[in-house]
């Protein structure tokens, strides 16, 4: 299988061998109850146990003085409840609030951003998970490769891979069901997906989806804002294809290459980042790199290799290649932030428009500031693209390799940055 060329970014990809990828206080009074097992965060908890379903969990607690912000600050109701029930997602809490299942001082509150203060008495019941139905939808898909067993899709930015609470339609799965003429599928995700993993993974495995999961067989995911290549087993009924592809991801023999535009340039033009990644305790929609030994339940081993391909705008930005050794949630975005080079357009991880302007503006002529502001204002997602993908075909055993240029939004920004200034990085001998 010949690899596609990436003319639009004039960037050459060399597929690595499979072998090369194998690298070595005082507590506030509270009550949490439910039919199954639940845990509530408290200052005395040392280890949190995952639960299988939060439906029916009840929380009765007064807002602790220590939990409330200082004078002038605000504490959102959804944020506070999320911090009090171990492992639950804010999206699940918000759904419960909107369903009228939360009261503050005896009054039902259905506004998720309602502010609470010290001493407020909160009563919350977590809503039951509702089964999702994946309906076939006629959604345009960019099919890079297809045979009887697998699909390779160039996922568009802003497209969610699979249905989930809040994203039941318009997903890649909905489009593939229509493309493959598969029937409507009813399914429910285990809580590890719908609550503990409410952030779509960058190359995250989907092995934790229940047996009654969606067809086709999604074996890995890309974050909603990430564009690029993704392989799919066409039907869950083809157990061999699904299992074979899943095993390749588990063994890290899948070849995965991403390209990104960063805010600034890393101090070293190439390197390996081996820093565990866990959920940010202060922001559940964000992951964070946690230096030091990974601790069970808090952070997981994560390793990424990066290489600067081009230095742009005199060091204000860079075109960086990433090769993943592991597949953690938001791995590249978290590691980029750890290196001090958050991705352009990544508002969650620090690659804000203001940061972009502060790095780029001093490096260009004042006459270009207006054009630069217009360029930066167009950033609507993290500039991250899954550029290359290689795997072994589950039935033929053939080694398949694919690459796909970034979409216009990424390519246009790269082109404009190149016009302002570009240079090749200097690698140490």
From TrEMBL:
Q: Which SUPFAM superfamilies match?
A: Alpha-L RNA-binding motif, Pseudouridine synthase
Q: Give the family this protein belongs to, as stated in its UniProt record.
A: Belongs to the pseudouridine synthase RluA family.
Give the UniProt keywords, A-Z: Isomerase, RNA-binding
Q: Does the keyword Plastid apply?
A: no
**Presence of keyword Isomerase:** yes
PROSITE patterns found in the cross-reference section:
PSI_RLU (PS01129), S4 (PS50889)
Domain RNA-binding S4 per the UniProt entry, residue ranges: 75-140
Which reactions are catalysed by this chain? a uridine in RNA = a pseudouridine in RNA
Q: Per its record, how is this protein called by name? A: Pseudouridine synthase
What EC identifiers does the entry list?
A: 5.4.99.-
Function per UniProt:
Responsible for synthesis of pseudouridine from uracil.
Gene3D superfamilies named in the record: Pseudouridine synthase, RNA-binding S4 domain
Which SMART domains does the annotation name?
Answer: S4
Q: Name one Pfam family in it.
A: S4
